[in-house]
Design a protein that fits this description.
By secondary structure, this protein is α+β, with helices and mostly antiparallel strands. The protein has one domain (about 5-80). The protein is built from one helix and five strands. It has one helix at about 30-40, and strands spanning about 5-15, 15-20, 55-60, 65-70, 75-80. A five-stranded mixed β-sheet has the order 1-2-5-4-3, covered by helices on one side. It is globular, with a radius of gyration of 12 Å.
Length: about 80
């Protein structure tokens, strides 16, 4: 994917605002499920506990697995694979 293909979608969820950066269409259920899954695993930690950029996570949501990178409250979605 070319960087020019990516769009930024600000999403308010659970009292926070996230920037979901992706070149694909995602449903609100997928986005909310992805954010909840990432949050449950501490992906949005700050300070010394913050994740290093470039460390991809495989996030299973709604019958798909999304390959994502997290930096602060930005979630970059690179790929979707169906698990069905």
């Amino acid at each position: 994917m070319d960087a020019d293909e990516f769009d930024v979608y600000p999403i308010a969820h659970g009292g926070r605002v996230y920037n979901v950066i992706t070149a694909m269409d995602m449903t609100f259920r997928e986005v909310r499920g992805m954010i909840d899954w990432l949050d449950a695993r501490g992906a949005f930690a700050v300070g010394d506990a913050a994740r290093e950029p470039g460390d991809l996570l495989s996030c299973p949501v709604e019958g798909s697995v999304f390959e994502v990178d997290v930096s602060g409250f930005e979630v970059i979605v690179y790929r979707r694979e169906s698990t069905k």
